């Protein structure tokens, strides 16, 4: 467990000048969004998600890949932010500088009200041209996949697939925040998938305190300036915020 807890951990957060946060699938799961592999149900149960979420799969069978993401987009569209998301909004409003780095593609942080969000893996709610990479606001929903009105290439979800590099701008912003924060929050992630997994420990190497909010400590590092909050983020983050700012008004009070 952490070397400092409760009010002391809240004081650490309250005194922070720059808080950086990394969120993973765990915080989204609390909003009812299935993980990447859990999404393979019903007609999709026969497929390996790693065989669908690739540029090669889209080149071979664009309709199948588009339809799978359309189904995921539909399911994610029914989800709502949970108290963990709103707790992060409260932190952003309370500290001088705040950067939220997420591996999630569901857009729930923005829906909750977070402003400075770095989407490492893109956003399933956005669509772009597969050739030009330009964002597209409207498309023909009767086509699978629809095509770019500019060049005729098929449209694709604006997410990072296996075999693709993370967006340069998002990566730069993430590393910049990691190098300069004094508190780093790792929320709902096993910290096993690189390069995002290295962010908390890189921040730690620069002198930051790392607070890991997860349902298990398995695979997580332990040591000085590493503090663990065990449990769902929808419970641990609001509790941490209340310790830091007892009078804060939030959606979970």
Provide structural commentary.
34% of the residues lie in helices and 18% in strands. The protein has 10 helices and 9 strands. It is of the alpha/beta class.
Would you summarize the structure shown here?
This protein has 253 residues and is of the alpha/beta class. It has helices at 7-14, 25-29, 49-52, 55-60, 62-76, 83-94, 108-112, 168-180, 199-205, 233-244, and strands spanning 18-23, 97-102, 117-119, 122-129, 135-136, 155-159, 183-187, 209-214, 226-230. A 6-stranded parallel β-sheet has the order 3-2-1-7-8-9, with helices on both faces. Strands 5-4-6 form a 3-stranded antiparallel β-sheet, with helices on one face.
Set out the fold topology.
Blueprint lengths: L6 H8 L3 E6 L1 H5 L19 H4 L2 H6 L1 H15 L6 H12 L2 E6 L5 H5 L4 E3 L2 E8 L5 E2 L18 E5 L8 H13 L2 E5 L11 H7 L3 E6 L11 E5 L2 H12 L9
Parallel strand pairs: 1-2, 1-7, 2-3, 7-8, 8-9
Antiparallel strand pairs: 4-5, 4-6
Helix pairs in contact: 1-10, 6-10, 8-9
Give the overall shape, derived from the CA principal axes.
Answer: elongated
Question: What is the number of helices?
Answer: 10
Oligomer: single chain
Q: Bin the strand percentage.
A: 15-25%
Keywords:
10 helices; 253 residues; 3-stranded antiparallel sheet; 6-stranded parallel sheet
């Amino acid at each position: 467990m952490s070397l400092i807890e409760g009010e002391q951990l809240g004081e650490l957060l309250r005194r922070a000048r720059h808080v950086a946060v990394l969120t993973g699938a765990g915080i989204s799961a609390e909003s009812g969004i299935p993980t990447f592999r859990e999404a393979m149900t019903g007609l999709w149960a026969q497929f390996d998600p790693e065989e669908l979420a690739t540029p090669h799969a889209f080149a071979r069978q664009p309709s199948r890949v588009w339809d799978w993401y359309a189904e995921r987009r539909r399911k994610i569209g029914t989800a709502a932010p949970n108290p963990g998301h709103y707790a992060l909004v409260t932190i952003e409003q309370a500290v001088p500088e705040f950067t939220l780095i997420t591996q999630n593609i569901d857009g729930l942080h923005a829906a909750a009200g977070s402003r400075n969000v770095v989407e490492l893996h893109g956003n399933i709610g956005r669509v772009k041209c597969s050739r030009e990479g330009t964002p597209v606001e409207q498309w023909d929903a009767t086509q699978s996949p629809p095509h770019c009105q500019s060049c005729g290439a098929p449209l694709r979800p604006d997410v990072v697939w296996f075999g693709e590099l993370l967006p340069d701008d998002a990566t730069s912003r993430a590393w910049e925040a990691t190098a300069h924060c004094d508190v780093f929050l790792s929320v709902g992630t096993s910290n096993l998938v690189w390069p995002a997994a290295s962010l908390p420990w890189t921040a730690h190497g620069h002198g930051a305190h790392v607070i890991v909010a997860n349902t298990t400590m398995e695979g997580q590092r332990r040591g000085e300036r590493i503090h663990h909050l065990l449990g769902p983020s929808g419970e641990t983050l609001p509790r941490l915020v209340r310790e830091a700012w007892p009078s804060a008004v939030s959606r979970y009070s």
